[in-house]
Amino acid sequence: MNFAPNYSSILLSWIALAGGLILLTTGGEFLVSGAAKLAKRLGMSSLLIGLTVVAFGTSMPELFVGLIALFQGHPDILTGNVIGSNIANIGLILGICALITPLPVRFRSVSMELYLGLAATVIVYLAAWHGIFPRFLGFIFFGSLIFYTVQSFRLAGKSYKRAQKTDQEPQKIERYSLPTVITLTVVGLGCLPVGSNFFIKGAVDVARHWGVSELIIGLTFAAVGTSLPELASCLAAIRQRQTEILAGNIIGSNLFNLLMVLGFCGMLFPYPMSSNLLTRDIPIMFSFSAVLFPILAVQQGLSRLHGFILFVAYLGYLYILQ
Fold first, then answer.
1. Range of the domain at 277
2. Which residues of the chain have pLDDT under 50?
3. Are 35 and 180 contacting, i.e. CB atoms less than 8 angstroms apart?
4. Which helix or strand (DSSP H or E) is residue 301 part of?
5. Is 103 helix (H, G, I), strand (E, B) or coil?
6. Is residue 3 in some structural domain?
7. Please, which of 27, 103, 151, 280 could form a disulfide with 192 given CB 3.0 to 4.6 Å?
């Protein structure tokens, strides 16, 4: 079928695709850095920063890619990006990080996020069964995210007050200059929409040129590309020995992808969902999340063996996409 390409040659499309990924990665990294520094100024705990602030920041590339894809009429890239990104976050990123170093994680610290993520996945499956993500579900998802975020900060505030009462010496709060925080955040937010626009246009051209479906583009190129901020922040957390930020970032980011990206886009416009998601991608996303329950509940963390299994499972998933 004939189509009007966004760029005059396939080479320019590849350049736009790569340039968009670079801008998305850079924007996500700047935004995460600015958000984390702001959280430190406010005295937030490392785990809460990972579950909320960093998770929100690293999910912004998925949100911008989803919005641009939706406005340009490519809903398969939106849904494929979110689902593929969640699979990549656990199989690829968490797997690689656990291979580098064992990751101690207290199950009680992330159990609520895991339960909410699985519940949201089941609801997304039901929406895909009906072939559409309706507007009312978008409001439910986004409202649930706001409630979760408020509750997280409220509980963190109580924990902080208890810690202040029991500790004889007050915790030292890191301070960063406000201009630095604002600059990082603004630059990050500026890169995201520009990078998303280049990426979507380049990805659509490449997909049509090579006969690859937009859903596969979303599940692979877009998913891995928009997950690069998570990888960057997780590697930084390993260097700084902040494994709670790492685990919280991955689990929190998956929850934000489902509730914020799918929910906010659904609030704006109801969008169709491919039936291919029912038999392959959503069940695999559910399985990658569900397997964390016994690992974290029994082992209280991930070993290098767990990392190897997750990474191999992700490679197997990429294989069946061919």
1. 10-160+175-320
2. 1-2, 168-173
3. no
4. strand 301-302
5. strand
6. no
7. 27
Q: What's the confidence (pLDDT) of residue 220?
A: 81
Number of structural domains the chain divides into: 1
Residue 2 inside a domain? The answer is no
CA distance linking residue 29 with residue 185, whole number of Å:
9
Cα-based angle 107, 84, 298 (whole degrees, multiple of 5): 20
DSSP 74: -
| Amino acid present at 121 | T
CA separation for the pair 213, 95 (Å, rounded)? 27
Give yes or no for a contact between 260 and 59, defined as CB atoms under 8 angstroms apart. yes
Cα torsion 53, 283, 115, 164: sign: negative
Per DSSP (E only), the strands in 19-129 are 103-104
Per-residue pLDDT tens over the stretch 197-252: 787 778 778 777 777 777 887 888 778 777 776 777 677 677 767 666 677 778 88
CATH at 68:
1.20.1420.30
Q: What is the pLDDT of residue 158?
A: 59
163 token code pair? 């810690």
Query: Does residue 4 sit within a domain?
Result: no
- For 175, the 3-state DSSP assignment is coil
**Residue 5 covered by a domain:** no
| pTM of this structure | 0.79
**Which residues make beta-bridge pairs with 272?**
132
